[in-house]
């Protein structure tokens, strides 16, 4: 079973290379390769989510010297989310013809999946940096797909911010390696509690630098400036795929906050939590005010995405199993809800009809966290995990109200005050799939949250992950 861990990384890379070498001039062949490859990734993710914690060492080099891929419940969950979203976005892209606006869409799309899957599977901090760079290169190509001055300008801003994050990442990794002599995450989890007292200041600096890096990826205030312009100017399907990009930052914060820098580590104690909490509150405020005050739908969705990341990371900042489980549920919800809204925004560029209006209303309700869809369940779980924290409750509830008002006002302008134009039914397939996934999250909230609770408990007691990463095999 452990040999399967390499497939989510090498399969999209091989298929992307095949497109460039043998199918670059045949769109139908590119589409077939992308569809079949994404379905294979989804089937693989469904298989892996049932697997125990295990590792795969490239070249059979042992930890901490070799390149380790580690599968646990969290990484398997993120693989499944990525594959599900990728298939939905690909269906919309092909149905609406977005992939005809540039020659290399499908190759870049597959390289993007390679970077995402690699980031979720790697058990080594340096290779997390490598996969971040793969993501950056592929996402910039997708961002400017179709051209246009505004899109290229937003793409340059996006790259500049992320290159800054990459530089900080290298500084952090160099600091950690100079102190511990390793970048393997399991090895770090074992060595950091034993570092001399005179080296704790360096570790604290490294922890803060890493948080800044992951805050850039997660669009956490005050490092969120790249997101509104990037998401609002990206092609609709690409913005929908980018809904999972910010979750890479959230994933890294959860992984490092529970494994490498847990709250009981003497060198850092509650450092990450104390920094993350106020930043998450500020992110909720910026997202809600931006959603309320913006009239352009793509930009409004971008601000709503920022607000949802604030809500997610507010739960993460508690660093308790219950709050982490709630954050994971909200991760699934917010990714799919954001994607659904961006796909609807793409559809409303030139077509507005009653069916599209109904889809928009459902997606807006989900995004704002109103009943009966999964956003309400997710926020209820977070509020329950943070009970006793009046500031967090007020921030989440007020933000939900402002988000709902802003999206309702925009929906009124789009569908009541603008001429109606019938949209082809096939262009709505992907949106319906997104909403069906959100409905499934709602209906199956009980068993899903039970599974996520076990996942969160394993994250906060990472003995199986450490054993699998450090020693290899299945645990």
Description:
This protein is an all-alpha fold and 475 residues long. It has one domain. It is 73% helix and 2% strand. It is built from 20 helices and two strands. The chain has helices at residues 7-22, 27-48, 73-96, 105-121, 125-143, 149-180, 185-191, 200-218, 226-233, 236-241, 245-260, 271-293, 297-316, 321-347, 354-368, 374-385, 390-415, 429-443, 445-460, 463-471, and strands at 54-57, 68-71. The chain has a two-stranded antiparallel sheet with strand order 1-2. The longest helix is centred in the middle third of the chain and has 32 residues, at 149-180. It is globular, with a radius of gyration of 21 Å.
Summarize this, please?
With 475 residues, this protein is an all-alpha fold. The chain is built from 20 helices and 2 strands. It is globular and about 65 Å long.
The amount of beta strand, in percent, is under 5%
Q: Strands of the largest sheet, in order across it?
A: 1-2
Strand segment tally: 2
- State the distance separating the first and last CA atoms: 12 Å
Whole-number count of domains = 1
Helix fraction by DSSP (H/I, runs of at least 4): over 70%
What average pLDDT do the residues reach?
90
The string of secondary-structure elements, in order, is: HHEEHHHHHHHHHHHHHHHHHH
**Biggest β-sheet strands, sense, barrel:** 2 strands, antiparallel
Summing up helix and strand content along with how strands pair, one would put the structural category as: mainly alpha
Outline: globular
- Gyration radius, to the nearest Å? 21 Å
Annotation field: number of helices: 20
Outline the low-pLDDT stretches: none
């Amino acid at each position: 079973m452990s040999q399967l861990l390499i497939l989510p990384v090498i399969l999209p890379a091989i298929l992307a290379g095949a497109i460039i070498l043998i199918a670059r001039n045949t769109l139908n062949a590119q589409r077939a390769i992308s569809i079949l490859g994404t379905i294979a990734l989804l089937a693989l993710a469904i298989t892996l989510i049932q697997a125990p914690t295990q590792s795969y060492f490239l070249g059979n080099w042992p930890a901490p010297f070799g390149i380790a891929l580690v599968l646990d419940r969290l990484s398997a969950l993120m693989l499944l989310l990525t594959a599900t979203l990728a298939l939905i976005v690909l269906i919309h892209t092909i149905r609406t013809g977005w992939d005809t606006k540039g020659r290399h869409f499908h190759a870049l799309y597959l390289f993007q999946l390679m970077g995402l899957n690699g980031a979720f599977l790697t058990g080594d901090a340096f290779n997390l940096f490598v996969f971040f760079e793969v993501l950056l290169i592929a996402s910039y190509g997708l961002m400017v797909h179709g051209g246009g001055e505004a899109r290229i300008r937003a793409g340059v801003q996006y790259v500049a911010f992320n290159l800054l994050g990459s530089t900080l990442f290298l500084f952090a990794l160099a600091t950690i390696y100079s102190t511990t002599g390793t970048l393997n995450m399991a090895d770090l989890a074992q060595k950091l509690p034993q570092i001399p007292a005179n080296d704790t200041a360096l570790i604290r600096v490294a922890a803060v630098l890493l948080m800044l890096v992951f805050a850039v990826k997660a669009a956490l205030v005050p490092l969120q400036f790249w997101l509104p312009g990037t998401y609002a100017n990206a092609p609709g399907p690409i913005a929908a795929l980018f809904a999972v990009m910010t979750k890479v930052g959230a994933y890294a914060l959860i992984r490092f906050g529970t494994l490498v820098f847990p709250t009981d580590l003497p060198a850092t104690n509650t450092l990450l939590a104390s920094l993350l909490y106020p930043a998450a509150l500020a992110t909720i405020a910026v997202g809600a005010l931006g959603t309320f005050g913006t009239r352009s739908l793509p930009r409004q969705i971008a601000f709503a995405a920022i607000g949802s990341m604030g809500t997610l990371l507010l739960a993460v900042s508690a660093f308790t199993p219950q709050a982490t489980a709630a954050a994971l549920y909200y991760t699934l919800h917010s990714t799919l809800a954001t994607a659904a809204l961006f796909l609807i925004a793409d559809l409303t560029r030139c077509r507005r009809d009653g069916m599209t209006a109904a889809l928009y209303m459902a997606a807006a309700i989900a995004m704002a966290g109103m009943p009966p869809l999964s956003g309400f369940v997710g926020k209820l779980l977070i509020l329950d995990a943070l009970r006793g924290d009046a500031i967090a409750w007020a921030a989440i509830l007020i933000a939900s109200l402002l988000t709902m008002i802003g999206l309702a006002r925009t929906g009124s302008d789009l569908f009541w005050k603008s001429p109606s134009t019938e949209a082809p039914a096939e262009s709505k397939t992907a949106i319906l799939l997104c909403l069906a996934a959100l409905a499934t999250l709602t209906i199956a909230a009980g068993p899903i949250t039970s599974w996520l609770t076990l996942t969160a408990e394993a994250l906060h007691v990472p003995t199986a992950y450490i054993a699998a990463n450090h020693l290899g095999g299945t645990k």
